[in-house]
Amino acid sequence: MNKELEEVKIELKSICEQFTNILKRLESENVITKEEFIEYSSKKIEFLNS
Could you give the CA distance from residue 42 to residue 39 in angstroms, rounded to a whole number? Predict the structure, then answer.
């Protein structure tokens, strides 16, 4: 079980790093601000949870 948990943690860390890199790129290209992205994401999550 511990090995599986470690694998999931490594995968999650990788996903978070990719997500951060995408957000930084979008910000640098003035596509969207961090605040706008957070607001948009929150609305999407609310929609998916309903």
Answer: 5
The mean pLDDT value for 2-24 works out to 90
Distance of CA 21 to the CA centre of its chain: 9
pTM over 0.85: no
C-alpha pair distances (Å), 38 with each of 5, 8, 42: 28, 24, 6
Distance of alpha carbon 24 from the chain centroid? 11
Predicted pLDDT of residue 33? 85
Instruction: Give the span between the Cα atoms of 35 and 27, in whole angstroms.
Output: 10
Are the beta carbons of 32 and 26 closer than 8 angstroms?
yes
pLDDT given at position 11: 92
